[in-house]
Amino acid sequence: MSAPSAASPAVSAEPVAALSTGPLARVATGTLAMAQAEMRKLRHDHLDIVTRSVQPLLWLFIFGTALRSNRSLTLGTLDYRAYLAPGVLAQAAMFIAIFFGLAVIWERDVGQLQRLLATPLPRTSIVLGKSAGACVRALVQALLLLVVLAATGIPVRWTVTGVVGTLAMLMLGTAAFACMSMLLAAAVKERERFMGIGQLIMMPLFFASSALYPLSVMPGWLHVLARVNPLTYEVQGLRQMLVGVGGAGEVWLDFLVVTGFFAIMLVAATRAYPKAIL
Amino acid sequence: MSASASDAAVLVDDLVVRFGEVEAVGGVSFAVAPGEVFGLLGPNGAGKTTTIRVLTTLLPATTGRALVAGFDVRNDSLAVRARIGYIPQAISVDGALTAYENLDFYGRVTGVARHERRERIEEAIETMELAPLLDRLARTLSGGMLRRLEIATALLNRPEVLFLDEPTVGLDPTARGMVWERLDALGEQAGTTILVTTHMMEEAERHCDRLGVIDRGRLVEQGEPAELLERHQTGSLEEVFTAVTGRPIGEENGEDEGRLSDVRAQRRVARRLG
Predict the structure, then answer these.
(1) Mean pLDDT, chain B, integer
(2) Among A85, A126, B231, B260, fewest CB within 10 Å belongs to which?
(3) Do A10 and B59 lie within an 8 Å CB cutoff?
(4) B65 SS3 class
C-alpha cells in the first residue's frame, strides 16, 4: 500500500464549538433551531392553516347546530355549540399533531432525518423541535377558531386565565400527540400505511372521549375507554376553563394527566426516532 | 495500511455489519490520511452506504472498530458528530425553506456559535457559489444547485472529515463537473478530508487521491488510481474492477440491492434531480 503524506494530525484535542455548552443548553438551542425552521416553513405556506381550519368549523356549525336542541348533551342549560367548542379545538389540534408523523416519514425518505441524526443535535431536541412545530400550527389554528367563536357570539366565558389556560392545555396536548405520532412513524415507516393507521387511531380517540358528548351519556364500556383516553382529560380541562362546565375533576388533574402523557410519549419517541432510519 | 492509527482521519478496522442473516459489510479495513480525498468505489448494494452510515454514527457495527477524527464512532459518537459533515445520497436540505434558511438552520444544529454564524455562512455561500439562489425555496432548485447547497450546509462547522454518499448521482455532466470542482477546491484550500462513495469510475479516477474498491461487502482492492491501473495492467478502473471481482461493475448485486422503501426513495430523488 502506498503512503500518502500525512500533512497534519487529524486528532484534535481542542474542544469543538458544538460541544462547548452543557447538555441542557444544547437541548434548548437545538429545539429552538428546529422550532424556528418550522415557523419559517409555516410562513412560506400560510394557506395550509386556513384550509385545515375548515373541518373544525364544519363540526362546530353543522354538527353543533344540528344537535343544538338536544339538552341531554349539554347537561341542560348551555348552548351545545359552546359545549362542543373545546372538543373541536382539541380535535383540530390533535389532527395536526397526528399527521405530523407523515412529515417525519417524508424526511426519512428524502434524507433529512439521516442528516440530522449525524449532527450533534440532541435526539430530544429533534423530537421536541418537531413537536414545537406542530404546536405552532395548532396555536395559530386555535387563535383563528377563537376569533370565529367570538365573532359568531357562541357563549364562551372570555376570561384571560381561561383563554391562556386553554392555549396552554392545547399546546401540551398537541406536543403529546405529536410525539405519539413520531413514535408511530418510527414504527410504521411507510406513508401509505401511516395514513391508514393514523385514521385508525385518531377516530376512536376522538369518539371515545368527551369531545362531542359528556361521559354521563356513555354506556359503561365506552365510559371506561374514555376514562383512559388522554384526549378526554385535555377536553375536560379546556371545557372547564373556556365554558365553565363539563369537567368531572379539577383542572389541575387534567393538566397533570396530559403532562404525564406528554412525558411518556416524549421519552418513547426520543428512543424510537433514531431507529426510524434503519 | 497507509496511515497509522494515531494520525488517520478515518480508520476502519475489520468492520462487519449484519442485518439479521444478511452481511452488508464483511470485514472491511482501510485508513484515510488527513486532507486526502478517498473514494469508496463499487456497484449499488456493495456496502458503501452501510460503511458510511457506521462512520457517521447512524448505524452500529456488528463487530470491528472505526475511528473518525481520532474518536471511536460507537463510544464517542457525539465527538464524532461534532467534527464531521455528512451528505446522504437522498436530498437532505429542507425543500420548504429557502436556501439561506437552510444554511442558517444547519449552522445552528451543527453548533456554530452565534457570533461566527453569519461569517461562516457568507464563506460557504462564496465557496459553493450560491449567492444568486439564497431567497429561493430549496424545492425550486435544480439538482446541481441542491448538491452545492447541501455541501455548503455541511461546511459551516468546518468539518475535519466530510462524508458524501454518491454526490453526483442523477446530475447532468455540467452539474457533476461543478460539484467536483467545488470539492477539489475544498480539499486543496481547507485541507478537509473527504470520503466519497461513487459507482462512477471516471470521476473516481480523476478526483480521488486514493480508492478502495468494495464489492459484496468486502474491500477487494485499494490504492492510488494510477497505481491500480498499473498493478492490473489496464487502462480503466472498470477493467480493474472486472479483474478483482471477475465481473463487470454494471452487474448489480441482486438481493443486496436494498428494500423496496430504499429503492423507492432513491428513485424519488433521481426524479427530483433529473
Answers:
(1) 87
(2) B260
(3) no
(4) strand
Give SS3 for A212.
Answer: coil
Three-state DSSP at B222 gives strand
**Residue B212, Ramachandran bin (φ over 0: left; ψ between -120 and 50: alpha; else beta):** beta
Rounded to 5 degrees, φ, ψ at A24 are: -65, -40
Long-range contacts of A40-46 (CB under 8 A, 24+ apart): A40/B97, A40/B101, A41/A133, A41/B94, A41/B96, A41/B97, A42/A133, A42/A136, A42/A137, A42/A140, A44/B96, A44/B97, A44/B98, A44/B137, A45/B96
Taking the model in full, what pTM does it have? Answer: 0.84
Q: Output the CA angle B134-B136-B142, nearest 5 degrees.
A: 100
The C-alpha torsion from B141 through B144 and B145 to B150, rounded to 10°, is 110
In chain B, what are the domains? Answer: 10-83+160-273 (3.40.50.300), 94-158 (no CATH)
Strand B10-19 with B63-68, pairing: antiparallel
**Residue B82, phi then psi, degrees to nearest 5:** -75, -15
Contact check, Cβ <8 Å, B57/A118: yes
| ipTM of this predicted structure | 0.85
Average pLDDT over every residue of B57-69: 94
Helices (H), chain A: 23-44, 47-52, 54-58, 64-66, 80-98, 100-110, 112-117, 123-152, 160-188, 191-207, 220-227, 230-242, 251-272
Report pLDDT digits (tens) over B162-188: 999 999 888 888 888 888 988 888 888
Taking an 8 Å cut-off on Cβ atoms, the answer to whether B268 and A109 are in contact is yes
What is the amino acid identity at position A226?
Answer: A
- Block means of pLDDT (10 residues each) for chain A, 278 residues, are 40 60 87 91 83 85 80 70 91 90 82 89 89 91 92 89 94 95 87 86 89 86 91 92 74 94 94 74
Q: Which amino acid, residue A236? A: Q
Please tell me the distance in Å from A136's CA to the nearest CA on chain B. Answer: 16
For the cut 80, the answer to whether the pLDDT of residue B126 exceeds it is yes
